[in-house]
Design goal:
binds iron/sulfur cluster, binds 5'-deoxyadenosine, 5-stranded mixed beta barrel, about 475 residues
Length: about 475
């Protein structure tokens, strides 16, 4: 794909800012200030997208509310990864019939991965007539123009053309925390894992220019952000499509040169493309957190092949061994799917044995959910949901034991943590994260939020550590 067709020209971006002004003028003519609500389902990429939507709404003069009854504009940013996520969105849409009845002027927008699917658009068109506008992730950058059309033409609008993927720079943004920030480095996915809907709704892989990413990171560090997560469906493919190709490890090296007291982490890494160069770079770069989310999905090579993952159990284990040899304190997490179509009990148990062999710090575990339009959804799936649940519970038991054991190993240590928020628990009023991303509930008061401190770990459980504030940590 020609890069000129992928990157939205600055004039087009500027035109959207004009639509924001026009909407602001329309809204200012109303009796009371406009209130907007953005509700986000799904992954960090959606969280980052919602921050852009909020940025655009703020430019239109909107304030934000969490109460749908008060909102003049509601944007539901959806996830399509599993059926459950879709059900929750339909539930939310159902509830909004009441708010719309009470306030017929209310504008309801549906966007994100679920909205990009034709069958969803069709269902919303017919059965959720109170939804005014649907647009997919590809159209996010022109939200102001779409919203302006809905406001002025008073008709429903569907913008889910299967456009090639785009990159839109310079969109306004509302960042929610002053400590942590997300930076998308690439969009889309070319991997077509056989169970996954993402490549169909987020388009082909495209990388942002390294200069844009570096400028954003520098700005965030200058503004005082301390924990920056680089986002992409598969960050290891970064740069393959750039006019002057560079890889993800080169990008990390460049980012690491930004001076300041901050960590940079990233997700998600596909194991097939994560190699020695990446691990050596992580080990070498002082700002790069020694944390790796390396989804294995299954511990059985036949199932991995059927999933189209591009590596075997042994190849995965070898990568983990190498990563740990250069980063002995590496915090390692993974995603697992139990009950892929045709998976046998013995194959599922291979996954548990891999989990035990690796000893992950934490896991994100899922029962397979068929996604219409993906190859796996067409495969015979003879095992009952109940049986899959039994395997799944065994996996959880194994991981819970491992996490509890790893966490217990921290007790007594003094470690550097970043205080990132309040918890509402009087005994441990603060939340913080270790370099590896482990949650530490902490004593102390909120003046510490945003600083690195030394925590003495006094207790732990399966999910978290508990620490006492020892002192402000020295600069690294
Ligand atoms: N069913 C269950 N889990 C899935 N994931 C992706 N697609 C599916 C599906 N159809 C999981 C994978 C992925 C994570 C984001 O969601 O583990 O890594
Ligand atoms: Fe889905 Fe696989 Fe792409 Fe991840 S790498 S988004 S699991 S297709």
């Amino acid at each position: 794909m020609d890069r000129n067709q992928v990157v939205i020209p600055p004039e087009q971006i500027a035109r959207q800012r004009e639509f924001e002004k026009k909407i602001r003028a329309l809204l200012e003519a109303r009796q009371r200030p406009c209130q907007a609500l953005v509700e986000t389902f799904g992954c960090q990429q959606n969280v980052a997208d919602s921050q852009r939507l909020m940025g655009m709404l703020r430019e239109m003069g909107c304030a934000f509310t969490e109460d749908p009854r008060e909102a003049d504009i509601i944007v539901i940013n959806t996830c399509a990864i599993r059926e459950n996520a879709e059900k929750r969105v339909y539930g939310t849409l159902g509830q909004l019939t009441h708010t719309k009845e009470a306030n017929p002027q209310q504008i309801i927008c549906l966007c994100g991965c679920m909205a990009q699917q034709e069958r969803v658009a069709q269902k919303v068109r017919e059965s959720y007539r109170h939804v005014d506008m649907i647009f997919g992730p590809q159209a996010l950058w022109k939200f102001p123009e779409l919203l302006y059309q809905v406001c002025t033409q008073h008709r429903r609008l569907f913008s889910i053309d299967d456009e090639h993927g785009t990159i839109a720079e310079g969109l306004p943004v509302v960042r929610e925390s002053g400590v942590k920030a997300w930076v998308s480095i690439m969009y889309g996915c070319n991997n077509f894992c056989s169970y996954c809907i993402v490549p169909y709704v987020r388009g082909r892989e495209r990388s942002r220019d390294p200069e844009e990413i570096l400028a954003e990171v520098r700005e965030l560090v200058a503004e005082g952000y301390r924990d920056i997560t680089l986002l992409g469906q598969n960050v290891n493919s970064y740069g393959k499509d750039l006019p002057q190709p560079m890889d993800f490890a080169d990008l990390l090296t460049a980012i690491d040169q930004t001076p300041g007291d901050y960590y940079v982490r990233f997700m998600t890494s596909h194991p097939k493309d994560a190699g020695e160069k990446l691990f050596d770079t992580m080990a070498r770069c002082s700002h790069v957190a020694k944390q790796l989310h390396l989804p294995v999905q299954s511990g059985n090579s036949r199932v991995l092949h059927a999933m189209n993952r591009g590596y075997t159990r042994e190849q995965y284990l070898e990568k983990v061994r190498y990563a740990r040899s250069v980063m002995p304190d590496l915090v390692l997490t993974s995603d697992i799917i139990i009950g892929f179509p045709g998976e046998t009990e013995a194959e599922a148990m291979d996954t548990i044995s891999l989990v035990e062999e690796v000893g992950y710090d934490a896991l994100f575990t899922f029962i397979y959910s068929p996604r219409p339009g993906t190859p796996a959804a067409k495969l015979p799936d003879p095992v009952s949901r109940e049986e899959k649940q039994v395997w799944f519970d065994r996996l959880l038991d194994a991981q819970n034991r491992i996490s509890a054991q790893i966490h217990a190993g921290y007790v007594g240590q003094e470690i550097r943590v970043l205080v990132d928020g309040e918890s509402g628990d009087v005994r441990w009023p603060l939340t913080s994260r270790t370099e590896g991303g482990r949650l530490v509930h902490l004593t102390g008061d909120k003046s510490a939020i945003g600083s690195f401190v030394t925590a003495k770990i006094v207790d732990s459980n399966t999910w978290a550590l508990f620490g006492e504030l020892a002192e402000a940590a020295p600069q690294r």
